[in-house]
UniProtKB/TrEMBL annotation:
UniProt-recorded name of the protein: Acriflavine resistance protein B
Residue ranges occupied by any SSD domain in the UniProt entry: 373-492
Lineage summary: Bacteria, Pseudomonadati, Pseudomonadota, Gammaproteobacteria, Pseudomonadales
Source superkingdom: Bacteria
GO CC terms of this entry: plasma membrane
Organism, scientific name: Pseudomonas putida
Length: 1033
């Protein structure tokens, strides 16, 4: 390379232009940094849509067959859908549709709406409304929970205010996906009829329903078009108050009018009286706010918080709004921890440079290159549309070691020429010119290791695309800055080192002397070194095979989600008591900052036997346990509350499930036969509970629901002119909380609900006094004349489908120290041991499913990284052989990574895999520095291979040690990290630190031997006498 023709020489000759361009680059980065959005992780969630359908009073079986199934048939035709699940309970069905990563959620929403419209004709005619959809993943953790309370306002009025003002306004904010109003008691007028009074007068509930529907309307009336004016017609056709309904004449008895008040009580109430929510121990209405898939969490919450003061000003003075849980606090804390880690890494790297270079100007030059490269990377991140998140910041932390590598190699070579007596400018020109190709080789081969990450598919590929591009862009920037700014500053400021006669050898000189002795011994025992290389290769492969495999570490986000489960036939009152008892235990734990809980049918909670807990923990430094340890600590206390179980799981930033879960991992069983499926689900559940590797095993069967079955005698009914449809309608009027009418105001619409009197609708004996009118004779016919009442049976509270098949979901957590890969093997063994029939299929979902997919691709990813590095090196060196020498440094790194992960009790997770890919890029630098010099010495100076590699090892020893230490110290803060989000970063740091330690100890001695061995194997040089280099001393 002709130095005077290179870009380095131009920059040295034009220092002002170089410095000004560098300042411009820094300014662009400084301007871009505050504009980068903040997120916990890169956006990698599946586009997900939740569809909700309501038919009050319909049984789970009716909802599954008549509502969920017609919808599933239409949804199954939507292209790009990867998963479709549904859950049908009393009066509601929830369907969750998950699509491929490249599917636009807006396009998916349009296709979902079209499918709903197509299915509408096959849905029950008496559904109050068509199914609705939301762009939300019900499995996702809420981003914000607001508590609304009032000491003066009734619950129904407060709920109405929350819905019409707060919820509607917040739902219009960009990024908000769904607002679940827990504890909402939506205002309604309830008509509570007396079966006895109706029978005495000869009326049925159908008479009441039709009378109300015909006397309270809101129809178009037209207008009066006069010669000079137009007057709109209006009537008092709508009824708004209970007393207005009470005055309605529903029939006549012996010529006297029968008012509604004569046969029923009409009261102000709520649509569902069996719901309640608490903020801590205070009853109220809570807004559980989730984001749209793909929306930035921090930006979404910031928009909500900015809008709240204006919304609060519109509320009555007695209403208080409090932020109960804000997930962005832990996100910001986590990013702050990474920023501190970045600062520590920079300081450690600068300290290493000062130790080895022992010259302030050289240290400052390398530091300047580091600062410029990192700052400029923010500008590229902004242009690429990336966010500041845990992975992109970790990429920058790791890149600290890479960035200084280039600068160190350049500055150290210039430093060497200064020591040889060249002037500052000559040393800068020669040093940069000689080392330019080496710097490019190091950086391009490092970038090559990231190429496979860019082509990874699925969620893992989407997650690490930003990581890989951030790291590679920072590396490429550092190449340019190292070959332009570094030699320019060196020509201006670096001075020739001054050595005094009384100076003692420095640390690097003593280290070099030790290495020279060791290298001579290694070259004298080449067969032993080849054996060491072979052993490290074998141990690295064996270590990878046997080390436990995992997906992502369980994070401590400071947020814990809980699902309660009680007996399927529990009453609402008992459920409330048990929830309050658990709430006292949660409130007493010193790690808890705030929490909310709710019971009743609301949002994704479909039964009274289930409830929800949302728990925010204190900042990581203010509590003595992690989220997982908090769960382990509080679990025994919660088990003391009889008749109910609270399943807790730590909220995760990486959420791949498609529905609410009681634990971190899910396994789904499917079969055509629901009864057989239930039997084997219970057997597998019990089998897993006997294995100590699993924790919190549960399934979603909930088979203890009581069913009162009525057998209709169709022949008897026909004699009275009645049908099964008439019986169903009458039962629905009495027990279904049927929405028979509605009235509208300017801001909302409210329902009129028909039911039996509260004293009668909860008793089975009420069926004996239940009457229908015969259309043939007009006589009142008791239901007992048409049907018999069977003994109550047991049935499911909810029915689940997965891909249109009956399904059950097993949820589980893992005991400490158990890897997900081991759990997959153990679960499959459990299925085989109980003899589960092949007619029942099973598959993992969510994180466990993604883990299986990533596990299969891991060896190919590692191989692809190796091939990419080999190809780049082969192109750069125009050789098939020399890249093999450079790649021979990698087995020791892999061995070190596995050993360190094992020592630290970590499984081989995706983060550890990325650490291994980084090592592929980092460690081969040692080989490049040696081989590049040795080849130049052989080709241009005529040295023999052994002399050339010996001189290369000694000459490049200092930059090798400096760059390795820089990379190691850049990763050390990740390994030792503490605080919010540290568990996600630690495996990567552990793998890199372990790999660098072992590879540095081995490759300094094995690489020169491999080089000589390959030279003899492929180039067949003439036999050489043993030189003085290879002595045993």
């Amino acid at each position: 390379m002709k130095a005077h023709k290179g870009v380095s020489t131009w920059c040295i000759n034009h220092p002002v232009a170089t410095i000004l361009l560098t300042i411009a680059l820094v300014l662009v980065g400084v301007i871009a940094f505050p504009r980068l959005p903040i997120a916990p992780l890169p956006e990698a969630e599946f586009p997900t849509i939740q569809v909700s359908a309501q038919l009050p009073g319909a049984s789970p079986d009716t909802m599954a067959s008549s509502v969920a199934t017609p919808l599933e048939v239409q949804f199954s035709a939507i292209p790009g859908m990867t998963q479709m699940t549904s859950s049908s309970a009393l009066g509601s069905s929830l369907l969750t549709l998950q699509f491929t990563l490249d599917k636009s959620i807006d396009t998916a929403a349009q296709e979902v709406q079209a499918a709903i419209n197509t299915a509408a004709g096959k849905l029950p005619k008496d559904m109050p409304t068509l199914p609705t959809w939301k762009k939300v993943n019900p499995a996702d953790s809420p981003v914000l929970i607001l508590s609304v309370s009032s000491t003066q306002m009734p619950g129904t009025e407060l709920s109405d205010l929350v819905e019409t003002l707060l919820s509607r306004q917040i739902s219009q904010i960009d990024g908000v996906g769904q607002i679940n109003i827990t504890g909402q008691q939506r205002p309604a007028i309830r008509v509570q009829a007396s079966a006895d009074k109706l029978a005495a007068i000869g009326l049925t509930l159908a008479d009441i329903r039709l009378a109300i529907q015909q006397t309270s309307l809101n129809l178009a009336k037209g207008a009066l078009y006069g010669e000079s004016s137009i007057s709109t017609l209006s009537t008092n056709d709508q009824l708004f108050k209970p007393e207005d309904y009470s005055q309605l004449i529903v029939s006549y008895k012996d010529g006297a009018p029968v008012h509604l008040r004569d046969v029923a009580k009409v009261v102000n109430g709520s649509e569902d009286a069996y719901v309640q929510a608490w903020a801590g121990d205070q009853p109220g209405v809570n807004l559980v706010i989730s984001r749209q898939p793909g929306a930035n969490i921090v930006e979404t919450v910031d928009r909500i918080q900015a809008a709240l003061p204006g919304l609060e000003a519109m509320l009555p003075a007695s209403v208080q709004v409090k932020t109960l849980i804000d997930r962005t606090q832990t996100i910001r804390a986590s990013l702050h921890e990474v920023e501190i880690t970045l600062l520590i890494a920079i300081l450690l790297v600068v300290a290493v440079m000062a130790l080895f270079l022992r010259q302030l100007s050289a240290t400052m030059i390398v530091s300047a290159v580091l600062g410029v490269s990192l700052t400029a990377s923010f500008a590229l991140m902004y242009l690429l549309g990336f966010s500041l998140n845990n992975l992109t910041l970790v990429a920058i932390v790791v890149a600290v070691g890479f960035v200084v590598d280039d600068a160190i190699v350049v500055v150290e070579n210039i430093h060497r020429h200064l020591e040889a007596g060249d002037s500052m400018r000559e040393a800068a020109v020669k040093g940069a010119g000689e080392i330019g190709f080496t710097v490019v080789s190091i950086s391009f081969s490092l970038v090559a290791a990231f190429i496979p990450l860019l082509f990874m598919g699925g969620v893992v590929g989407r997650l690490f695309k930003e990581f890989a591009l951030t790291a590679t862009s920072t590396i490429l920037i550092s190449v340019v800055v190292s070959l332009t700014l570094a030699p320019t500053l060196a020509a201006l400021f670096m001075r020739k080192p001054v050595h005094h006669a009384h100076d003692k050898p420095g640390f690097s000189e003593r280290l070099l002397a030790w290495y020279e002795k060791g290298l001579r011994r290694a070259l004298a025992h080449q067969k032993l070194m080849i054996g060491v290389f072979g052993l490290s290769l074998g141990l690295a492969i064996a270590g990878y095979i046997f080390i436990p495999k995992g997906f992502f570490p369980v994070q401590d986000t400071g947020f814990v989600l809980g699902t309660t489960e009680a007996a399927a036939d529990i009453s609402y009152g008992d459920m409330v008591k048990k929830h309050l008892a658990m709430a006292e235990i949660v409130a007493a734990d010193p790690a808890v900052q705030a929490f909310s809980h709710s019971v009743g049918v609301s949002g994704s909670n479909q039964t009274i036997a289930n409830g929800r807990f949302w728990i925010a923990l204190k900042k990581r430094g203010d509590r003595d346990v992690s989220a997982s340890q908090f769960i382990d600590r509080i679990r025994p206390q919660l088990m003391k509350v009889p008749g109910i179980v609270l399943y807790l799981r730590a909220g995760q930033d990486i959420n791949l499930s498609s529905g609410p879960s009681r634990a971190q991992y899910q396994y789904v069983l499917k079969s055509n036969d629901g009864a057989t499926l239930a039997t084997w689900t219970q057997r597998l559940t019990e089998k897993l509970r006997s294995n100590p590797a699993f924790r919190d095993i549960s399934n979603d069967l909930q088979l203890g629901g009581s069913i009162t079955h009525i057998s209709i005698d169709r022949s008897a009914a026909a004699r009275f002119g009645l049908t099964a449809s008439d019986v169903d309608e009458a039962l629905y009027d009495a027990f279904g909380q049927r929405q028979i009418n509605e009235f509208q105001t300017q801001v909302n619409q409210y329902n009129v609900i028909l039911e039996l009197d509260t004293k009668q609708r909860g008793k089975a004996e009420s069926l004996n006094y239940f009457y229908l009118r015969s259309p043939l004779s007009g006589e009142m016919v008791p239901l007992s004349a048409l049907a018999k009442f069977d003994a109550p049976t047991i049935g499911p509270l909810s029915i689940a489908h997965d891909g249109m098949f009956p399904a059950t979901n097993l949820s589980f957590n893992l005991a400490p120290g158990v890897a997900l890969g081991d759990a997959v093997i153990l679960l499959n063994q459990a299925k085989a041991e109980i003899g589960m029939p092949t007619a029942i299929s099973g598959n993992f979902q969510g994180a466990a499913q993604a883990f299986q997919s990533s596990l299969a691709s891991q060896p190919w990813l590692i191989l692809a990284a190796l091939v990419a590095v080999y190809i780049i090196l082969g192109v750069l060196y125009e050789s098939f052989v020399h890249p093999l020498t450079i790649i021979s440094t990698l087995p020791a790194a892999g061995l070190g990574a596995v050993i360190m992960l094992w020592i630290c009790g970590q499984d081989f997770s995706i983060m550890a895999l990325i650490g291994l890919v980084l090592l592929i890029g980092i460690v081969k630098k040692n080989g490049i520095l040696m081989i590049d010099f040795a080849l130049e010495a052989q080709r241009n100076r005529g040295l023999a291979p052994q002399e050339a590699i010996f001189e290369a090892c000694l000459t490049r020893f200092r930059p090798i040690i400096m760059t390795t230490l820089a990379a190691l110290l850049g990763a050390l803060p990740l390994m030792l990290g503490y605080g919010t989000g540290a568990e996600l970063r630690q495996p990567l740091g552990i793998a890199v630190v372990g790999g660098l330690l072992v590879s540095q100890m081995l490759t300094l001695f094995t690489t020169p031997v491999i080089y000589l061995w390959l030279e003899r194997l492929f180039h067949r040089p003439k036999p050489m006498p043993t030189t003085a280099l290879a002595t045993t001393d």
